[in-house]
TrEMBL record:
This is Restriction endonuclease subunit S. It comes from the Bacteria. It comes from Thermogemmata fonticola. Residues 126-204, 367-458 form the Type I restriction modification DNA specificity domain. It holds the Pfam family Methylase_S. GO terms for molecular function: DNA binding; endonuclease activity.
Length: 491
């Protein structure tokens, strides 16, 4: 059931009344979700073969919802349905799909997908839905986008989880019970549209930011290929359309290239094994979880912490207690390079790297060490740590570390020594290494800035979603009046 916030009547703002959902404007209604749903349809998985008389259609599953909401139908299966079935299940703008089965511990069933005009427009086939999904169509009292946003609020509060039934490991969503028991506040339609418009604007800003991040990451990949092949020279100065050798020079005095075992590189660069620039490798210490006499506290980094720590987030990094001699040997310094030895997954191989930066050390009120599933590498003077870590990243993204994984009892272990002894790195003079690192770090800073903007927009969306849906924040009357009239299905 919906949770009621205890609010004494005398504390109500002017023009508000107390309801089962808490204080809301007196002219808003509170109804069960089912009261605004005019129709519920079951899906059809169809056939995987185009038998005579069957028609092709995209058939949406719950697992497709998040990608389809971004306009990505690449992995949505095309199935074949009887004409009568497709006619009953063809989706239209304003339809609302709900996932009935699946889910997981961290992702309950009951996810929703709103069918938008953009989705319908971008499809060259009809769109239907599978037998593990249901389609809801709403009556005129509720704007579909407002309905889906309020459902999202309930979902994020864990309300759909209460209506899960688990059988043989499968989670099934009791849709009818949810519709009959959960309530929704109903402002006038103009205010529903206005609320949806504001929240959609924030979502669109977030999506635009995600596109900028994706483009910046692609730019970085392209720059890495260029910089590790030609060095820090303008793209227009690359040798074009000619075989390169140790003495080849481009038409405008470009640096000559040499052929090597890792491909063409500038003739004045060297190629060495990764291990030749590593002066020392240290094992980690997990320490103790209790502050016994004589033990010292420290952040102890695991491979699973690397991505967050690289963004400056140490919130979930465990504080452990180490012997003074152990901490003295394992205390991290600027320029140290950590490598993950164990863990990984099918989509995330071991061998991830973390470069210890001045910002990381400066922002810590405790020493930082590393666990026994991590090793620390320290480099000699021939290699700039930022350059080393960026080239390692290139190898990682190419899948090179995966080749050096050993799998035992389901755990993936990275064979670091073999990797260092067999993988090579192009080695420019230090000044060029630093310039390559500077160029790529500038792109990284752009990515971090956009990621911070994305996080801020996500926080703004969640805050607005809660405050607008509970009427703790009201939109200006003049703004709301702009949304009077209009197509209640248009989204």
């Amino acid at each position: 059931m919906n949770e009621m916030r205890p609010t004494p009547a005398e504390d109500l703002p002017p023009g508000y009344r107390l309801t089962e959902l808490g204080p809301i404007p007196a002219h808003w209604r509170v109804v069960r979700l089912g009261e605004v749903v005019s129709r519920v349809d079951t899906g059809d998985w169809g056939s995987d073969s185009s038998d005579s008389g069957l028609l092709p259609a995209y058939v949406l599953r719950g697992t497709d919802f998040s990608r389809v909401a971004r306009g990505d139908l690449v992995d949505v299966p095309i199935r074949y349905l009887r004409p009568t079935s497709l006619d009953r299940r063809k989706l239209f703008v304003g339809d609302v799909l709900v996932e009935l089965s699946g889910g997981s511990k961290d992702q309950p069933t009951g996810r929703l997908l709103l069918v938008t005009a953009a989705l319908i427009k971008n499809c060259n086939l009809p769109i239907a839905f599978s037998n593990f999904v249901k389609r809801m169509q709403l009556n005129k009292a509720c704007y579909p986008e407002y309905f889906s946003l309020y459902w999202q609020l309930l979902y994020e509060k864990g309300q759909t989880r209460i209506y899960e039934k688990r059988t043989t490991g499968i989670r099934n969503f009791k849709l009818t019970d949810f519709l009959n028991n959960q309530s929704i506040p109903l402002p006038p339609l103009a205010e529903q549209r206005a609320i949806a418009h504001v929240l959609r604007t924030v979502q669109e800003a977030k999506q635009a930011t995600e596109r900028v991040i994706a483009a910046a990451r692609e730019l970085k990949k392209s720059l890495m290929r260029h910089l590790f092949t030609y060095g820090p020279v303008p793209v227009g100065a690359m040798p074009v359309g000619e075989a390169v050798g140790a003495t080849s020079v481009g038409a405008h005095g470009r640096a000559p290239l040499q052929d090597t075992q890792i491909g063409p590189i500038p003739a004045h660069w060297r190629v060495v094994r990764l291990g030749e620039v590593v002066s020392r490798v240290d094992t980690g210490d997990w320490g103790s979880d209790s502050s016994d006499s004589g033990l010292l506290p420290a952040y102890v980094l695991r491979g699973t912490d690397f991505s967050r720590v690289a963004r400056g987030d140490l919130v979930d990094v465990p504080i452990r207690y180490l012997r003074p001699t152990s901490l003295d040997r394992r205390k991290l310094f600027v320029g140290d390079v950590l490598v993950e030895l164990s863990g990984g997954s099918k989509d995330q191989p071991t061998g991830r790297l973390l470069l210890v930066t001045a910002a990381l050390i400066k922002n810590c009120n405790l020493p930082i060490a590393f666990s026994n599933f991590v090793k620390r590498m320290q480099l000699n003077k021939a290699c700039y740590p930022e350059y080393f870590s960026l080239y390692w990243q290139l190898l990682y993204e190419k899948g090179q570390t995966r080749i050096y994984e050993k799998r035992t009892t389901g755990i993936r272990n990275f064979k670091l020594t073999d990797f260092l002894n067999n993988q090579s790195i192009p080695l420019p003079p230090l000044a060029e290494q630093q310039e390559i690192a500077r160029i790529l770090q500038a792109v990284d800073e752009k990515i971090r800035a956009e990621e911070a903007r994305k996080v801020a927009l996500e926080g703004l969306f969640r805050s607005l979603l809660h405050h607008l849906m509970t009427a703790q924040v009201r939109l200006p009357r003049a703004f709301v009046q702009q949304f009077a009239g209009g197509d209640d299905a248009a989204v």
